[in-house]
Fold:
Amino acid sequence: MDLVVPIIMTLIPAATPILLAALGELVAEKSGVLNLGVEGMMLTGAVVTAAVMLITGNVWLAILCAALAAATASLIFGFLTLSLSANQVATGLALTILGTGFSSLFGQPFTGKAVPLFRSPFPPELATHPFWSVIFGYSPLVYFSLFMVVAVWWFLQRSRPGLVLRAVGESDISAHSIGYSVIGVRYMAVAFGGAMAGVAGACYPLMLTPQWVERLTSGRGWIALALVVFAAWRPFRLLAGAYLFGLVMTLEVYAKASGGGFRILPSEAWAALPYLATILVLVLISMRRSGSTSAPACLGKPFVPTT
Amino acid sequence: MRFKFEKRPEASTAMLYLTPVVAVIVTMVLGGVIFSLLGFNGFGAVREIFLSPLINAYKWQDLAVKAAPIIIIAVGLSIGFRANVWNIGAEGQYIVGAIAGTGVALLTHQMSGFWILPAMMLAGVLGGMAWASVPALLRTRYQVNEILTTLMLSYVSIQLLNYLVFGPWKSPTSFGQPQTVLFSSSQALPYIIPGTVVQANVIVTLVVVLVAWFVMSRSVFGFQIRVVGSAPQAARHGGFSADRTVWFALLVGGGLAGLAGILEAAGPFGRLVPQFPTGYGFTAIIVAFLGRLHPAGILVAGLVLALTFVGGEMAQTTIAFPFPAVGIFQAMMLFLLLAGDFFVRYRMVRVRPQTAPAAASRPETA
Structure:
């Protein structure tokens, strides 16, 4: 019990950026667009958050700017892949390279400076007891991510625009022929994915690190991409998967801090664990699925309207 | 007068080779404007980055040395990209190649002989191949997407490198510095032009380019790769195995990345240090596309990207232009090239209202 509370309190914040980024990517992929630029957009969001926080100190403004900046970046990707039907894999990689370059350039003046934490919105008295702290002790970003899981699920499964979005991702030609704008829907889905990746990036300076350093997200954007596959494009499985990864990443934190039982493996092995776990999970998923995949039918394929 | 875009009956070869050149030129102009608007000396930076290394003859050796590993990796990746095999973890195969070659160097440190360096190279190639064989196995056996596995493994390789240089491979005489011992004279790459920094890796690069060009354009094997990538249906009917192509693409990509890794460790670095991973594996992706997946094109594109690195360092010292901005120039090149692909497939035609009155009243969707 002594260990359970701190582990939960570490794993949930650690999982939150992956969850947010993966939710955004899930919506984009449901509309048929594979955006491999998640890592770049997260870095953009993270650096913008740190910059706005250190200049203005306004946390809401910082998160808003992060979402807008990453959504703008995603629209560059959108213009190339949707309007010019460029290759989605290559363009996504280009977006990650751009985000990495942009963030290391504009992050230079802010590197290593402490960013004030975005603390729990609840009165601290509520979180004094360990049991209640597990419920009330997190940054608002954590509660936002949980809200978004439900919101994305409701949107996709219960709302009419969500149905249109899924139709566009499953059969772009049919959706087009009954009068829906395939490209328009995909633009919005890509922009939503970008905004969510931006907020995911904001989690690092606001609750995890809490500062900007170069390549802060260290590949978590790619883990988010893998998580969407793991979750078979379902929001609630995404939540479970993200917390599972949160646990793996927490082991790394504990291995670095404590030693003890963790000494059986060098600290580098613990640091490599989330990436190895991702590979393992991808293998297990495709072994079980054997043949038919649950991926949206038009994923990654450009759509060219023939008037 | 109105224009619309119309799909070309066949992809334009002229545009295919023209667009990379245009992408680089537009990057220079657009980059200059954007960085000027951001308050930097934008056009000064463009001049330093793209021009200064070319007009200063003593910088040419730096260009060759920087371009060598990027070109070797990009040649390997281009073969995979042609077959639609997306190995984006060349950085990891590059690191593991260097680790494997360094392993041989540490075992043979007390020995001397001409065979040591070739043995290190071989170990580097095998190390890169071994690292790439994991995604190949997972893709062919379990249909696991190679994009994610190759990339995840490159993060793992960085941890492996750190473990070795901070732990068992740390030099006893380095005063606690995390680094291996310096390679001996039979282990370091020889200099081929006296008085310069040009080492044997430049020769190896040229050989790799020539061999790749020959294999891809003259052999059945290269034909098979191109068919599997561009016409998978036809490839199946022709009896070309998709699995074998995946294996081949990843092993060649990994092997060449591994070779580049050990050449870099035995060349400019002379030992393994934690700073060894420099992102060449990712730069090589840009080079492969900018070079249109053709060995000769890659040779030129590799020199252009090397130009941005060497010039970026010059711009930093001469006009205090921040070096990370180089990454933005590189990303812009790739974006503009991918945008330019549109003109390979489409052409602009004039819409004549009198022949198509119905089309004129309809909103354009192209």
Remarks:
- Chain B touches chain A through 45 residues (CB under 8 Å).
